């Protein structure tokens, strides 16, 4: 259900639409599909507490959605919406700006709840459940917090990007520091610059400082006198550039010496021709300010707030400067956060990494390296969210009512590769996925899905990804499905498909229903057989071929395959070997 507080940064698209004098074909199709339902939707939403302004906004977003929908479906039925097409439209909205995806998702979710509550939905209940899950505001917001998706990267040739970046302050400062290092400089035993060199090095990056025996300032010194420091560590800007040059491999630091690498020499001599290296340098300068070095709360971390501001500044709809630097921001309840974030944004502006005018923007040539740094932060936030969700589920889990004894076998391998395990009957499919990865020492580097039934007509379950492309109906969210809702009697089976390239198919058979185990005892493996195949070995037949070749000295690929398998002289893989002890150690991490 929409909330009264939800607002759009994109204004009301209806205003622009109403100004048109000529309607397109898709406008007409969308309008005809919505018009019969709009009065009822407005009445229902008003009764539910949606204010008029927001209701207008939701209706305008619905119109936009169905205009896009009508481009692929000439006969639009607003009471029976196609799931894959909806997923693609939401994905296109996310490509423009994640907040646009959230806005359209919110409007569509509210409309779907109206159809559900008024019994107007004409499609299948499975499709309705898929659409409601796909557009759920809370889930969409969690999935939508992908800062790297905000970034709009324009097409630029390497020459254009290199020449433009070479003129930016951060590159000029890096080049100045590289030129100052020259043929090399001596360092202290702590691999830092000696005090006598601090002033010149600091000046290269725009810092007025001098190495001294004390940090106490001379009260009689002029206002523009250099700041005294006892170590370069006391100058964060200098240290940021120093570390960025190391990370970009422009300089190498040994025990008592620093010198330029060949890459550093090339950048110093021709910055415009070093397109890749100036991009990597920008990446590390962004990285230093947006990636927290310790545990952090994404809702409170200043690093994340800076990252969000940068992501917004690199989007198609950058925010106005007054939202961060204006009186309202500095007088509001989050004034301290605004000051801290604003300080970092101004620092970026001094280095040419950000431009501050009426809007805060990231130069187009820096958006690709920024997106790479934001992607790393996205991954860290996603890991934290997954850990928090797992902890919450574990804390709220009711006592198990039964134990399932399962036999899990990888299909089509001779000798058979199988494991017998005991798990709580209520284990969710995403937890079962983790167990399967541990059972067969998979590395979880590929896509997966579960399936009840055959490939053509079976029901599929996979990780929730509203924006993913799917063949046919998207799979159901595996997190919402307990194993005992699928397997109810001994002999029933579930299929697990891992790596859609190698196609490792696993058959999971319920062998017995046992009494519940005590807390902390499950999952456990009670038996098994067969050596688990290695990742990326081209499926069951590829794995068996590699084992055969590894034992055949006359085969032309014998040496290469043995090297790929990591076998030393005299070593062989026994296809029937099962190491129960090693597996028990791996499963300890999953005990509950």
TrEMBL record:
Domain Plasmid pRiA4b Orf3-like: residue ranges: 403-580
Source organism per UniProt: Arthrobacter alpinus
Record-given protein name: Plasmid pRiA4b Orf3-like domain-containing protein
InterPro entries named among the record's database cross-references: MM3350-like_sf (IPR024047), Plasmid_pRiA4b_Orf3-like (IPR012912)
Top-rank taxon, per record: Bacteria
Coiled-coil spans in chain: none
């Amino acid at each position: 259900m929409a909330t009264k507080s939800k607002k759009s940064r994109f204004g009301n698209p209806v205003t622009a639409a109403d100004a048109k004098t000529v309607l397109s074909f898709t406008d007409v199709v969308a309008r005809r599909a919505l018009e019969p339902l709009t009065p009822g939707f407005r009445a229902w939403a008003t009764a539910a507490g949606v204010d008029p302004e927001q209701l207008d906004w939701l209706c305008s977003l619905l119109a936009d959605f169905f205009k896009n929908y009508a481009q692929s479906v000439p006969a639009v039925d607003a009471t029976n919406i196609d799931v894959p097409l909806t997923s693609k439209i939401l994905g296109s909205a996310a490509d423009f700006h994640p907040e646009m995806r959230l806005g359209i998702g919110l409007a569509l979710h509210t409309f779907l709840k109206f159809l559900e509550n008024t019994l107007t939905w004409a499609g299948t209940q499975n499709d309705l459940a898929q659409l409601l899950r796909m557009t759920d505001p809370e889930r969409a917001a969690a999935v939508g917090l992908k800062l790297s998706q905000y970034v709009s990267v324009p097409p630029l040739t390497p020459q254009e990007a290199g020449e433009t970046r070479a003129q930016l302050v951060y590159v000029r400062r890096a080049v100045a520091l590289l030129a100052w290092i020259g043929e090399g400089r001596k360092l202290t035993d702590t691999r830092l610059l000696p005090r006598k060199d601090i002033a010149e090095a600091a000046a290269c990056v725009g810092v007025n400082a001098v190495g001294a025996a004390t940090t106490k300032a001379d009260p009689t010194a002029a206002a523009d006198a250099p700041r005294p420091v006892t170590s370069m560590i006391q100058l964060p800007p200098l240290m940021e550039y120093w570390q960025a040059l190391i990370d970009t491999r422009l300089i190498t630091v040994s025990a008592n010496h620093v010198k330029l690498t060949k890459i550093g020499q090339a950048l110093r001599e021709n910055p415009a021709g070093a397109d890749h290296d100036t991009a990597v340098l920008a990446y590390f300068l962004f990285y230093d300010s947006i990636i927290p070095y310790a545990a952090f709360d994404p809702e409170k971390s200043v690093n994340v707030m800076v990252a969000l501001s940068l992501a917004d500044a690199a989007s198609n709809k950058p925010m106005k400067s007054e939202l961060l630097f204006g009186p309202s921001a500095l007088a509001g309840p989050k004034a301290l956060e605004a000051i801290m974030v604003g300080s970092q944004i101004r620092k970026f502006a001094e280095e040419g990494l950000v431009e501050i005018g009426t809007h805060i923007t990231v130069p187009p040539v820096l958006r690709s390296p920024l997106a790479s740094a934001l992607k790393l932060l996205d991954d860290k936030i996603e890991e934290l969210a997954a850990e928090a969700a797992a902890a919450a589920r574990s804390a709220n889990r009711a006592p198990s009512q039964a134990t399932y004894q399962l036999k899990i076998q990888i299909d089509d391998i001779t000798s058979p590769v199988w494991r017998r395990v005991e798990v709580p009957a209520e284990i969710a499919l995403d937890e079962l996925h983790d167990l399967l990865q541990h059972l067969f020492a998979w590395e979880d580097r590929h896509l997966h899905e579960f399936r009840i039934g055959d490939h053509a007509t079976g029901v599929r379950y996979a990780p929730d990804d509203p924006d993913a492309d799917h063949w046919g109906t998207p799979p159901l969210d595996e997190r919402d499905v307990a194993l005992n809702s699928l397997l109810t009697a001994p002999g029933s089976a579930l299929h697990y498909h891992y790596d859609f390239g190698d196609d490792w198919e696993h058959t999971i058979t319920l062998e017995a229903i046992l009494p519940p185990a005590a807390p902390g005892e499950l999952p456990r493996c009670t038996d098994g057989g067969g050596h688990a195949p290695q990742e990326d070995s081209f499926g069951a037949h590829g794995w068996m071929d590699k084992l055969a070749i590894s034992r055949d000295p006359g085969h032309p690929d014998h040496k290469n395959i043995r090297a790929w398998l990591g076998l030393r002289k005299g070593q062989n893989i026994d296809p029937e070997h099962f190491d129960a002890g090693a597996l028990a150690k791996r499963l300890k991490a999953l005990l509950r």
